[in-house]
Amino acid sequence: MLLERPTLPPVKLLCAYVLCFFPPPRPAPPQSSLDARRRRGLIAGAAFGYSQAILFWVFALLFYVGAVLVDDGTVGYKNFFTAMFAVIFGAFGVGQISSDAKDAGEGEQAAAKIFRLTDEPLNIDPLSEEGARPATTDGAVEFKNIFFAYPSRPNMQIYGSDKYPQGFCLDVAAGETVALVGPSGGGKSTCMGLLLRFYEASKGSVTIDGRDVKEVNVKWLRSQIGYVGQEPVLFQGTIRENIAKGDPGASDDRIQEAAKAANAHDFIMEFQEGYDADVGEKSALLSGGQKQRIAIARAILNNPPILLLDEATSALDNESEKVVQEALDQLQAKQKRTTLTVAHRLTTIRNSDKIAVLNGGGVQELGTHDELLALKGLYSTLWNQQTSKLTGE
Ligand SMILES: Nc1ncnc2c1ncn2[C@@H]1O[C@H](COP(=O)(O)OP(=O)(O)OP(=O)(O)O)[C@@H](O)[C@H]1O
């Protein structure tokens, strides 16, 4: 079959030829990074040249000594070549070691980091059998006068400041939906980490049904809380296995029921293998919205008394956000459960029982949507900014 040649007007053809031979210059990288790369290149080149030079010096020396020894009859050719190859391979090995020295150094540094991490004393042991396991949970949560800084940044106080000498305080009644809003870095997600006991407050307490979370068993505590974050974690395996993590003994019918409630059943059935479809390494075979709905199905199956939604829909496009939001509404409607929601899009949380505006180390404003609008404070400013963007004013 003859392929037709693409026809270009002569001027465009000429431009294409010119660009082939004289491509426009690429923007130069910043000077500092260029210098660093040059320095790295020079060091690597010098090290390589040096290791090669050693090899050839050894060759030269060998042939010289060999020639002298064979000439005066001290050794025969056979012995000379045997010894020579032994020395060559030996030198080759030494050269190889020097080129691997950089990797060995990096490996040593990485190992030191791992050992530093594994030697870190474990204050919160997720596998510990200690601690109370109350038979029932109503789901009331309270953050009482919390002071907290992340261990890796001890000088950056997240909760508690001159503005908030009483620390971070928030009371969430059983079955209540409380939204956490406010500027980025205000500590909205951090309180979820404290409730899940990923970290411990330096002062104050987090309680669940009036009991300090430090007194209850960590595994039990986490089993009472469903978490749907911005980037849900799926495990390598099938969709069925991933949903079943919510309740490992669940029947296929219950898994399907949970998937239907999470608006996930239809897209799952579009896969050739249905519920047995593999989610792929790092769940690469699924879109963001699909991953989110599988995580929600898992939470529905778990049916926890406390639900944490940390910007669960913020990474999605409008269409996916709608279906995922419907799935989340289902999850909340299935049972009146305590829900803490972090959201940047205020339209998604306006119907919450309470809205807490976190800023500068504590709760700056607290109330319903209407109360906060009437307050004409930070929430009202954020709301007006977002709604004016939506209406294009
Ligand atoms: N693991 C961590 N180690 C150290 N600092 C952290 C860690 N996680 C969060 N931070 C810092 O703590 C502060 C509060 O973080 P947090 O995620 O709670 O804020 P946020 O209000 O949820 O912010 P955003 O709206 O941007 O998600 C931020 O300044 C953040 O950089």
Automatic annotation (TrEMBL):
Its main location: membrane. The chain crosses the membrane at residues 42-65, 77-95. It holds the Pfam family ABC_tran. GO terms for biological process: oligopeptide export from mitochondrion. The keyword Transcription regulation does not apply. It is found in: Membrane. Residues 141-385 form the ABC transporter domain. One of its GO terms (molecular function) is ABC-type oligopeptide transporter activity. Keywords: ATP-binding, Membrane, Nucleotide-binding, Transmembrane, Transmembrane helix. It comes from the Eukaryota. One of its GO terms (cellular component) is mitochondrial inner membrane. It is a multi-pass membrane protein. InterPro entries: AAA+_ATPase, ABC1_TM_sf, ABC_transporter-like_ATP-bd, ABC_transporter-like_CS, P-loop_NTPase, Type_1_exporter. Belongs to the ABC transporter superfamily. ABCB family. Multidrug resistance exporter (TC 3.A.1.201) subfamily. This is ATP-binding cassette transporter.
